[in-house]
Design goal:
single chain, 9 helices, 2 domains, mainly alpha, about 280 residues
Length: about 280
């Protein structure tokens, strides 16, 4: 007697063979988002230059400019991400036989992926010229170091060595300036300050170069050191505020891209109105 072999039928999962991510739509949305971001950034730079003035009491204040810059970054992220996410959802392939909740999730993912892709592209495009600039600057410094010594500390050294009486004789001014520049750069490189022995030496050099008595030279050194600390602290706070605004704009951009993609996908399938009616948040 021969046993019959029973073959179990393969269960049909009902999943379509089409991929869950339309990469062409994601790439299109990301490229459009990047292009709009650079256009709006260029417009913002021009707008900022038109409202800022180097003269005191003219143009907007520094606080207003910082807040305006942060808000404008958020506006840029919302506009460019929304349009890029909408295109990513509207241009994707239609999924046949997929549950409506799954379609909603995939549309949201399309918007989020398009935002992430655009962010990576923007970071690469912004980092490339910066890297070239740093490399070119390092080469130029290596070639011209013997001929020129300039840097951000030159202004502070000028303030230190400015004589009250211009007729005071100066011996080897270039050598003493280079020495002071190296000393200040070494002491303030990592947020420190002048060491006691360096401070005494600087005061003596200032007194010898400017003709000031020792107490007045000590006072000038203290004023310049305080100015360095204030400018460094202001730069640190400005960088921290910019980082916070940039983080907020990126998060809002991700949300807007995801939301806009669901709208684009719903309009693509003709189900946007029914999605709104089924939304629990809108029913409450």
């Amino acid at each position: 007697m021969i046993d019959a072999v029973v073959v179990q039928p393969v269960a049909d999962t009902g999943e379509p063979s089409i991929a869950g991510v339309s990469w062409a739509a994601v790439a299109a949305g990301a490229i459009v988002s990047c292009a709009l971001t650079f256009v709006l950034l260029a417009f913002g730079v021009g707008l900022g230059l038109s409202v800022v003035s180097p003269w005191a009491g003219v143009g907007v204040s520094a606080t207003t400019f910082k807040i305006g810059t942060g808000l404008y970054l958020i506006v840029i992220a919302m506009l460019s991400s929304s349009i890029g996410g909408y295109l990513a959802g509207r241009l994707r392939s239609r999924w046949i036989g997929v549950h409506s909740d799954e379609v909603y999730f995939r549309d949201t993912a399309h918007g989020f992926i398009a935002w992430a892709f655009a962010t990576v592209i923007g970071a690469v495009l912004l980092a490339t010229p910066a890297s070239s600039m740093i490399g070119g600057g390092a080469t130029a410094i290596g070639q011209t170091a013997a001929a020129s010594q300039t840097g951000p500390m030159d202004g502070y050294v000028d303030a230190l060595l400015r004589p009250d009486t211009p007729s005071v004789a100066q011996t080897n001014p270039g050598e003493s300036r280079s020495e002071m520049l190296r000393l200040f750069t070494a002491n303030f490189r990592n947020g420190g300050e002048l060491k006691p022995n360096d401070r005494d030496y600087v005061s003596k050099v200032v007194a010898a170069r400017t003709g000031l008595n020792q107490p007045d030279a000590d006072k000038r050194v203290s004023e310049v050191v305080s100015r360095i600390k204030a400018d460094t602290d202001a730069a640190r706070k400005a960088a921290a505020q910019l980082a916070f605004w940039l983080t907020a704009s990126l998060l809002l951009g991700a949300f807007c891209a995801s939301l806009a993609a669901t709208e684009g996908g719903g309009l693509r399938d003709g189900t946007w109105g029914s999605r709104i009616r089924r939304s629990p948040a809108l029913r409450t």
